[in-house]
Amino acid sequence: MLLSQNVSAVGPLNLYPMVHISLMFGISYILPDFSDESCTLKMTLRNLQSILSWEFKNHSVVPTHYTLWYTIMSKQEDMKIVGDCTNITRSFCDLTDVWVNMTEMYIPKVVGFRGNTALVSCMGSFFLAMETLPLDPPEFEIIGFTDHVSVNVKFQSVAPKMLNEEELQFYLALIEEQSGGIVKKHKPKTNGNITENFSYVINKLIPKTNYCVSVYFEPKDPRKINRSPLKCTLFQPGWESESSESATIGGIITLFLIAAVVISTVMMLKQIGYICLRNDFPKVLNFYKLSVCVFPELPPLEKVATVEVIHINRKKKVWNYNYDDESDSDNEAAPRISAGGYTTHGLTGRLCPASVSSATLEDCSDPATEECDLPEPKAGAEAPVAPGPSPWQSECTSRGYQGRANLLQDHFSEEDSSSTEGSGDRIVFNVDLNSVCVRALEDNDDSEVTPVLPSRPEETVVLEDPDETESDLLVASGEGTQLPFPGPSAECLWPEDTPSDKSDTSESDVDMGDGYVTR
Amino acid sequence: MSAEPDVIRKCTWPVCLVGLFVTGILSLDCSLLDVHLRRVTWQNLSLLSRMSKSFPIECLRESKAFELPQEILSHTQPLTRDIKEAFYEMSRQAFHIFIQDTFRSTWEEKHLRQVQIGLDQQLQYLEQCLEEEEEENEDMREMAEDEWTQSGAPVPQLSNLELRRYFNRIDRFLKDKKYSHCAWEIVRVEIRRCFYFFHKFTALLRRK
């Protein structure tokens, strides 16, 4: 039409050039404007729908409606108009059911009209097999269960025909879980059909962790992946016991490994000499006797033996402690120094009304009793240290021990013998030989056996000033069986002070000659 | 002067190793032929698409229907060897077309060279695998041919004939159009279409 209008307006002389110009103008109208700068054609997949969209760059000319034609390369065919995209105002067209052959190359043409006037046109070529069309991700929902997370994917009911079964191999739905920054891809098997909904289960999840899922199709070109927005859920399973048990086991194993590493490191350092370990610990770290300290050994039971005391009235020889009168007379009360260095004194006492077994000796002490002085032990004492009782030992470890026998003796002498067993002058009672001083008197007064007390294996004599050791009755020592040096107040139960030249030995001889028992 | 022998000595051993590896790579495992064909065919497809930005619309009117024999790939149960032979024939014919020097001005030479190399590799692999298969299953192939003949189904070797005719039409078109720019563009599009068709055909090899 345009061609005919141009020809009638000119004269015969200028007919040829005008006709030429008109023809050119007509041809330019017929031939599409395939300049890339004038328009842009784009093919996309939206909800699995093949959508062809266009955009004209010349905004000064805005068409009111559009019409789409197309043809194929494999055959010589005229342009075919797309019925659903004729005189449309939108700038896109759904070709899902039109372009179905992936092996074909389609040549579309879009013409923009304003009224009945064609303003612009645009053509292009599309080989769908090589078009990396980004697929929109399908709809999905994520549901958290006690032991797993389920992802339900909803596909479109109608798939584009171009995405037949063979073409779907290029597109896969991937599910990513983002937990703690870690992205894990899952490739669920869709069996090549993207029209059926399916559910994908994700298990082996970490408890109390937020999991997010994104779904997308995977095209040939990874750069054109169109991902769906993330949907998240907090995984709080009911299988916490299993996870806690596994965590406990893991923790125990970890502790063992750490201990093994530390021990091996210490041993290695010891081997190379970096650290030196002592085998002998200081005394303060010697816990060998800890049990002894914590659980002290009970003292051995006192051996009680039956002793028959025969009271014999004898004249007591009392030392009057008159230092001024130093006579050489045979004053038996005078202290005699035995060979063992003992000084014996005779003691008198009175009986206390208290019972035999529980006499309190402080009340029963006789003021007339005299002390029993024992020579101070000297360093490197001359007295032999016998394995058993030694001369240094005093039978009187305490006043209590001494007075007990003393009381017993006085008791027997003053009271009637009817209170005790026995008859007449014979009294039978139980005496702890470890706590009394006994001595056997023989006919020969000269003979004197220095009485000693049985020793205690744990006790020893401290070679110190007696005054200082008055209160130290027992001093522990690893050797010896000596008793501590008694104080000046110690009393010896010596009814007769007949020093003996014989040194006491550890022999325990029982001599009942004068009624005394020697040990 | 003395550095060159040292360099040669240093590079000899690595080159030998590379050569061994290349030889190992080039020696195709025929059990993975379908994978290789699929990959190489897709590469050639991509190269043909990149050789030209867009189809010149002005050449649309010179287009021609070359009638690709799609029926050769439509057999219900084509034999594996038939598929391989069809691949071989297609690759040989396409290589023959692109080895001509008349289209240097149409496309970039590097793209054309890559297409030639790809087709040559495809031919080598197919030759090797076909020879191995022929030596092992020669008797079975003869029996299969007899069965096809008796059942009335088309002889598989006709597919190769159809392919040869197809590519002959393309070659004749080029000569008639005097190897013009539009002729080459139309041929490029057509062969790309053929490649894609055979790319879908590799799925049959995988299933077998």
From TrEMBL, chain A:
<dbReference type="Pfam" id="PF09294">
    <property type="entry name" value="Interfer-bind"/>
</dbReference>
<keyword id="KW-0812">Transmembrane</keyword>
<feature type="compositionally biased region" description="Acidic residues">
    <location>
        <begin position="461"/>
        <end position="471"/>
    </location>
</feature>
<dbReference type="InterPro" id="IPR013783">
    <property type="entry name" value="Ig-like_fold"/>
</dbReference>
<dbReference type="Pfam" id="PF01108">
    <property type="entry name" value="Tissue_fac"/>
</dbReference>
<feature type="compositionally biased region" description="Acidic residues">
    <location>
        <begin position="365"/>
        <end position="374"/>
    </location>
</feature>
<feature type="region of interest" description="Disordered">
    <location>
        <begin position="365"/>
        <end position="397"/>
    </location>
</feature>
<protein>
    <submittedName>
        <fullName>Interferon alpha/beta receptor 2</fullName>
    </submittedName>
</protein>
<dbReference type="InterPro" id="IPR003961">
    <property type="entry name" value="FN3_dom"/>
</dbReference>
<dbReference type="InterPro" id="IPR036116">
    <property type="entry name" value="FN3_sf"/>
</dbReference>
<keyword id="KW-0472">Membrane</keyword>
<keyword id="KW-0675">Receptor</keyword>
<keyword id="KW-1133">Transmembrane helix</keyword>
<feature type="domain" description="Interferon/interleukin receptor">
    <location>
        <begin position="135"/>
        <end position="234"/>
    </location>
</feature>
<dbReference type="InterPro" id="IPR050650">
    <property type="entry name" value="Type-II_Cytokine-TF_Rcpt"/>
</dbReference>
<feature type="domain" description="Fibronectin type-III">
    <location>
        <begin position="13"/>
        <end position="117"/>
    </location>
</feature>
<feature type="region of interest" description="Disordered">
    <location>
        <begin position="444"/>
        <end position="519"/>
    </location>
</feature>
<dbReference type="InterPro" id="IPR015373">
    <property type="entry name" value="Interferon/interleukin_rcp_dom"/>
</dbReference>
<feature type="transmembrane region" description="Helical">
    <location>
        <begin position="249"/>
        <end position="269"/>
    </location>
</feature>
From TrEMBL, chain B:
<dbReference type="GO" id="GO:0051607">
    <property type="term" value="P:defense response to virus"/>
</dbReference>
<dbReference type="InterPro" id="IPR000471">
    <property type="entry name" value="Interferon_alpha/beta/delta"/>
</dbReference>
<keyword id="KW-0964">Secreted</keyword>
<keyword id="KW-0202">Cytokine</keyword>
<dbReference type="InterPro" id="IPR009079">
    <property type="entry name" value="4_helix_cytokine-like_core"/>
</dbReference>
<comment type="similarity">
    <text>Belongs to the alpha/beta interferon family.</text>
</comment>
<dbReference type="GO" id="GO:0005125">
    <property type="term" value="F:cytokine activity"/>
</dbReference>
<dbReference type="GO" id="GO:0005615">
    <property type="term" value="C:extracellular space"/>
</dbReference>
<keyword id="KW-1015">Disulfide bond</keyword>
<protein>
    <recommendedName>
        <fullName>Interferon kappa</fullName>
    </recommendedName>
</protein>
<keyword id="KW-0051">Antiviral defense</keyword>
<dbReference type="GO" id="GO:0005126">
    <property type="term" value="F:cytokine receptor binding"/>
</dbReference>
<dbReference type="Pfam" id="PF00143">
    <property type="entry name" value="Interferon"/>
</dbReference>
